[in-house]
Amino acid sequence: MPTPPAPSASRKRPLPNTQDWPPLPGTRAYMARQLAQDTATVRQIVTVLQNCAGQIAPLVAQLYFRTGPLAVLECTATLHALADDIAHDDPQTLAELAAEHTRTG
Which of 1, 14, 30, 76 could be disulfide-bonded to 23 (CB atoms 3.0-4.6 Å)? Predict the structure, then answer.
């Protein structure tokens, strides 16, 4: 009499690890992730603007005709002010947009 085949391993596959999956669009987790990413991007933009202002300042200082009505003389102050406005206002605005989108989504 032939021997029966050895019992095979269960044909069921283990469930995938869903912890590493990105959250589904429209969920609170998705909005939180998007908010975090956008906030980090805004911080990077602020840093770029501040660095740019820092690079421009010594160039402006080299200008001989700095006493004239040159728009370039405003560059450093304008970039710093823009960076400050973005750093102060945009994270709050992003949080409000994410909260609004979560409520309506």
Answer: 30
